[in-house]
Amino acid sequence: MEVSSHTNQAGNETIMNAIIDISGLVKKSKAIFNLHGGVHPPGNKAQSTQLPIGELPLPEKLVLPLRQHIGNIPKITVSINQHVLKGQLLAEAEGTVSAAIHAPTSGTIIAIEDAVIPHPSGLPDQCITIKPDGKDTWIERKTQDWRKGNLNDLVASIRLSGIVGLGGATFPTQIKLRGNGKSEVHTLVINAAECEPYITCDDMLMRERSEQLVLGIQVAQRLIGAQNVVVGVEDNKPEAIAAIQTATANTNIEVKVIPTLYPSGDARRLVHLVLGQEVPHDKRSTQVGIQVFNVATVLALYRYFEFGEPSLSRIVSMTGNVNRPQNFEVLFGTPLMHLVKAVGDAKDDTSHYIMGGPMMGFDLPSEEVPITKAANCIIAASPTLFEPATPAMPCIRCARCADACPVSLQPQELYWFAKADNFEKAQDYKLFDCIECGACSYVCPSAIPLVQYYRYAKSEVIALDKAQEAADIARERNDFRLARLEREKQERAAKHAARAQGAKAAQAAKAAGSQEGQTVTDKQAAITAAIERAKAQKAADGAVPKNTTATSTATKAEIKTIDTRRAAATKDANKLTADTDKQAKIQAAIARAKAQKAAALKAKKG
Amino acid sequence: MNRSPYISNAPSVSNIMFKVLLALIPGIVVYAWLFGGGILITLVIATATALLTEALMLRLRRRPVQPFLTDYSAIITAWLLALAIPPLAPWWLIVIGVAFAIIIAKQLYGGLGYNPFNPAMIGYAVLLISFPLLMTKWPAALSIAQTKLSFIEQFNFIFSHTLPAGVTMDAVTSATPLDYLKTQLKLNQSMDSIQAASLFGVVGGKGTEYITLAYLAGGLFLWQQKIITWHLPVAFLGTIAAIASLFWLVDSSQFSSPLIHLFSGASLLAAFFIITDPVSGPTTPKGKLYFAAGIGVITYLIRVYGGYPDGVAFAVIFMNICVPLIDTYTQPRVFGHKE
Hints:
The complex is a heterodimer. By secondary structure, chain A is an alpha/beta fold. Chain A is built from 14 helices and 17 strands. Chain A has helices spanning 2-23, 151-158, 173-177, 201-224, 238-247, 267-275, 295-307, 336-342, 400-404, 411-419, 423-428, 439-442, 450-541, 553-605, and strands at residues 54-55, 62-65, 75-76, 83-84, 89-92, 101-102, 107-116, 124-132, 187-192, 228-234, 253-258, 290-294, 313-320, 326-331, 352-355, 362-363, 377-381. In chain A, strand 10 (228-234), helix 5 and strand 11 form a beta-alpha-beta unit. In chain A, helix 4 packs parallel to helix 5. Chain A starts with a helix and ends with a helix. The model of chain A is unreliable at 1-29 and 543-550 (pLDDT under 50). Chain B has helices at 13-35, 38-60, 65-69, 73-84, 91-106, 119-130, 132-136, 151-160, 169-172, 177-186, 191-195, 208-224, 231-250, 258-263, 267-274, 285-305, 312-329. In chain B, helix 1 packs parallel to helix 4 (73-84) and helix 12 packs parallel to helix 15 (267-274). Chain B has 17 helices and no strands. Chain B is an all-alpha fold.
């Protein structure tokens, strides 16, 4: 019901916008829709926006993890000691969801091995290490006409660009652009909200590169065939808003300024804020005609088509407990400490580094990690900047978390279920709709690490699902095996039955045979008697010469019959013995089978 | 490791509970001014009992004592119970009530955050059932009492239950407005003549109405501080006002006005301090409305038709039982899900 009404609403909006576009007279609606919950953490953005986006000198080495995106690890296409040029393919996308990796500068590949990567797990993963030659020599760049080029060719070529979602999700961009032409996407939402504290890379991008950004938006608009484009930007970035409004002045791109409220930059939240449309929980936004791109991603698309530059660098906010917080255009693979040096080093009490913002970021496992495609912000942390968490108190059910949840979940109930390992109930309460934004923990008077409980519950459910899947497969196999055994048993039983039938017939035959035997004995006796009679007759005859010529033809015939019969009787008797043997064998086989069954039963019971 | 968020902006549990205590102080001041300093003695006994029993139970349960003693939740229970029982009750009455509330109703269920019932109301109900006479013997406000007891005399009365020579019990006690209403209505007195009695003030009981107004002020402070939301007090008071108005409009000679119901008995104390206990109450906004409205209905019915002059405690306990049900059936629609 709601879905259809939403679709209708979206449809109406489309028509409305089309009419407005044609007339060109009426300004589009500027309405901003409300978000449930949300929090207002201190922005801490001013520190890193004092200086323009900086450039870094080439580092000593570049360490490029193969796993910088969501999806399959790309396939390495270079070998150790090979000299590569800037922009040269190092690893190509493997499978549908994957992204290529390119050499950020020219140099020599000095290692292809496991190294520590910026990932919450802290586990090392395969990386390609380049020693720059300092010349920064480009490979031959192939530009494409994104305004007129064949759409399918353009989209297909993005697979070679290595571009992933630079807002932090790092989802390979070509996947989000596939199926155009057939796609139902009518509205493109450009995510410029940047709601997390400290992070200013998108803010600075909009301030300094708004013209290229607008071209990037137009690239994305053409590729997905969207009629409407809305840029959503939080009102705490007045310079960026001014720049983007100037740059979009003569376009059909609408800039919507939304109130600063974390987490308005979450894609589904942003869509709701700027379009008033809730993307159903079980659908992707594209299924309701909306696609969302981060500002940095569309800019990368533009540079790829316009200049033939693959994804080699990104803007990173280097802020927190450092001397001169600033944004830099950083080559992927640049060691973290190289970036830290550029901001005049971290202050002495820096304890560690955080990647991402203070609401959703994570502790970097080491200072040795490289900057990757996901690294929008690095915060130097200190105990004064981020106070260590106070010990958690029991939940007093104050429901401040529920008031803060942007998804309208009941975090206090989810916490309760997660703590009790009651995962079924947790899923009933929509555990998997949690976006782990941390708003609930942010407002919790009992200082309960709520998000950690949800992450735990989610990972347990996923593990259980996997185990369940494995168990299902095992059960299926077992069921099949049992069915096969049953079938074989039945086949054996059928065979036995057939044999038993045969044996019965034989027994019947035996019974019949013994009767026949009786007759035979009688016959034999008769024969003997006859012989005796003949002998007696002979003796009685006395003088009769001892030859058979004297016997009558009838007697001869009788003797012949008797002989034939005798032979037949002997043969029958032989056959009878054979049948008895067979029966014994069958009996033995049945007994064996019974014993086996009993043993099996015993084993099962045991 | 993923331990975000790294920042938080929340008052601590202690901070919240402390503000609740703070919000009770205007009511206590007015109370002491109207009824004498005896209430302060009761509050001290209650506080000491609460802290001692809480510490004892925490030790027995091998839980850290210090963080839970300083969360102030036991003191809130103690103060609410002390304010709910007659102020000149013998010292052991409040000791038994608070000890029962903390030991049985709170700690045996798991302590802070785990008690399904409002501990103060459990303590109150136990006292009311066990010691009905003491629990209904309210002293008259000093302004209308025949004999005004001094602080020392009140102190002696609480600890030794002896009155100064020549002073009878009747001289210091008086029926509460709700009690008086009930008994007089049974005697077929008209509402006008009942309310003309000296123990009635402008909107409620003479004197006690000022205490309830002070509770209202404290409650508004809690709302302003975002310790409580509007849902519970508004739904509770609104329900009482609505039902009382209905009955009163139908027959004003038999039923007292909604103002009497709002400003007498425990209405305002309950609205802002008792039913707002987050632990034993519902968490969803809609659930809070149902919960508070339920308490309002039951309170009114007990007052008008039940055997007790006031019904807040039993109403709260009954609705506490319904909380899991209420929470289950009032889940808000999750973003991206259908209703």
